[in-house]
Amino acid sequence: MANEIEALRMRLAELESRANELDEEKRHYQWLAESTTDLISRHARDGTFLYASQAARSLLGYEPEELIGVSAYDLFHPADLADLLNKSPRVYYHDGFYQHTYRFRAKNGRYVWFETTSRTRRDPTTGELIDVLCVSRDVGRRIRAEANRERLARVVESTTDYVLFCDGDERLFYSNEAARRLLGLPREGLDARLERAYTPASLSILREIVLPAVTRYGSWSGELEMPSPKGPVPVLSVVLAHRGPGAEPDHLSLLNRDISLRKAAEAQARQHQEQIAHANRLATSGELASNIAHELNQPLGAIANYASGALMQLRADPNRPASELALPLQRIDEQVQRLAERLRHIRTFVRKGQTRPRPLSLAEVVNAACRLCEWQYQQTDITLDTQFPTALPRVMADPVALEQVLVNLLLNALEASREQPAARRVEIRARRSGQREVTFCVSDQGPGISADEAQAIFTPFHSSRPEGLGMGLAISRSLMEAMGGSLGLADGSDGATFIGTLLTEPSSIHRSQPPRSGP
Fold it and tell me: How far apart are CA 380 and CA 411, in angstroms?
């Protein structure tokens, strides 16, 4: 009997210990339920709250006690409730597990996006539903992020820009509708590489320049070309590295905007500018007509004199040896060559052509411009003086365009000097003004340019001369900018001083000879 009592006591102690463990475990799970940021709730079959954790306060603004006895269905967004009730009852009531994303009304009236995982509990004997346990979390940020991604995806898919995604092996794994149409890519089963999307020259640029730059800096932008059935398409490309949580480090986005129309407009603008510049050269050649006549008359007169002298010698002595006529014939040949060279120079100046900068000697172009204006300066008795350093690096310029600029400036300086009896000198100076820059100046001693007029002298059709077209300075500035330089008016000088800058030849070691000191 004593043994039975002892055994019973031990069993009771064991049960009590087990009960204490269960109470401790219950308190632990209750602590977890009350501490989690997810809303843990228990509901009756009709959705009535039987229990709500403390997270109801932070997620919905309700005290847990306020929700007890309230039907959760009454707090659903109407559209989401209809979706829930239309679900198969088999999923909700029989399988015992269900996950749903919906909007739930908070105490302040706003809706919170919830994702709820539900588990039903049933009586094992009767199968009757006892309650539904739910764990709900706020997924509003995720829903908004997904909505933003979806909107961006629709924009990317519908944009007229050509959008491509590629991995580190240059394999394309996405192309939008515009890119698929241009490159002939399939909508599904994309199996293409980067070489399919760019011309060979642009692919070389991508591999040698763009991809290393993106690896280092995260992005790159510039002009490339993409192939199409009608020929290469110029595009403004932006290449971005995929960065951020979950992004593959070697994945890239390539956004390409068709700039064919812009290129065509630029080409048309250049062509229009070249036509205007050509017209200006023709107009300038009219102003230089007397000089052109002088250039032709000198060698023609010399040829006539030598030919006349040779004929006189032959008439005086018909049996004269032919070798004695070598000198006048040689002089005639020299004058013919000089005449041909002058004609080539004039024809080059007035011809129509594109502006193509190349390395050249500034001194040689200045001398050529001075020769064109030489006769006008001689007729007005105005000195044209050049002051160059002993050596200058070659500059990047188009010889005809630069000569046109200098002729315009020299003729303007000549006109300004005519108005001042004491102004008898025009100067051209040049110097190296930077590591890759040369500056030249054309200065006169005329009346100068007022501050008000200085603001408008480079405006097309603005002229201070009644017979002027007002295009010379505007075209000159445009030509200088097309060659990578600039043209402006110096401040605070006597008379007027125009300053032009040009880039020098890269790593230039060439030296030019100074031009002659005057016409």
Answer: 12
pLDDT at 519: 40
232, 170, 247, 245: which is closest to 201 by C-alpha?
232
Which residues neighbour 173 within 8 Å (Cβ) at sequence distance 6 or greater? 165, 166, 167, 190
Q: Where are the beta strands (DSSP E) in 266-365?
A: 358-360
Residue 419 and residue 446 in contact, taking contact as beta carbons nearer than 8 Å: yes
Token pair, residue 370, equals 């001075």
Q: State residue 25 phi and psi, 5-degree precision.
A: -65, -40
Q: Could you give the 3-state DSSP secondary structure of residue 112?
A: strand
Instruction: Give exposure, 85-111, as e/b (b: 16+ Cβ within 10 Å).
Output: eeeeeeebeeeeebebebbbeeeeeee
> Alpha carbon of 296 to those of 123, 293, 351, 377: distances in Å?
121, 5, 18, 17
Contact 55/41 with Cβ under 8 angstroms?
Answer: no
User: Residue type at 296?
Assistant: L
Question: Which residue in the block uniquely carries the two structure tokens 């990578």?
Answer: 484
Residue 357 CB coordination number (10 Å): 18
| Pairing of the two strands 383-387 and 425-434 | parallel
Taking the CB of residue 138, how many other CB atoms lie within 10 A of it?
A: 19
The Cβ of residue 322 has, within 10 Å, a number of other Cβ atoms equal to 8
CA distance readout (Å), 433 to 196, 199, 437, 480, 504 = 47, 41, 6, 16, 10
C-beta contacts of 191-195 below 8 A and 24+ residues apart: 194/164, 194/166, 194/170, 195/170
Closest by alpha carbon to 388, among 344, 443, 327, 431? 431
Nearest to 113 by CA among 100, 131, 122: 100
Which positions ≥6 away from 393 have C-beta within 8 Å? 432, 438, 504, 505, 508, 510, 511, 512
The strand pair at 437-443 and 425-434 is best described as antiparallel
Helix axis angle, 362-380 to 326-350, nearest 10° = 100
Q: Say if strands 171-175 and 162-166 run parallel, antiparallel, or are unpaired.
A: antiparallel
At 195-237, the pLDDT tens digits run 999 999 999 999 999 999 998 888 999 999 999 988 999 999 9
Collapsed DSSP state (helix, strand, coil) of residue 96: coil
307 in Cβ contact with 315 (< 8 Å): no
CB of 295 closer than 8 Å to CB of 342: yes
Which residues of the chain have a pLDDT value below 50?
A: 91, 466-469, 508-519
Take residue 256 and report the two structure tokens written for it: 């390409």
Q: Judging by beta carbons within 10 Å of its beta carbon (0-12, 13-18, 19+), is residue 334 exposed, middle or buried?
A: middle
Q: Which two tokens stand for residue 313?
A: 């010698």
Are 358 and 505 in contact by the 8 Å Cβ rule? The answer is no
Contact of 306 with 331, CB cutoff 8 Å: yes
Q: pTM for the complete prediction? A: 0.45
Cα–Cα dist 337/314, whole Å: 25
Q: Pairing state of beta strands 437-443 and 171-175? A: unpaired
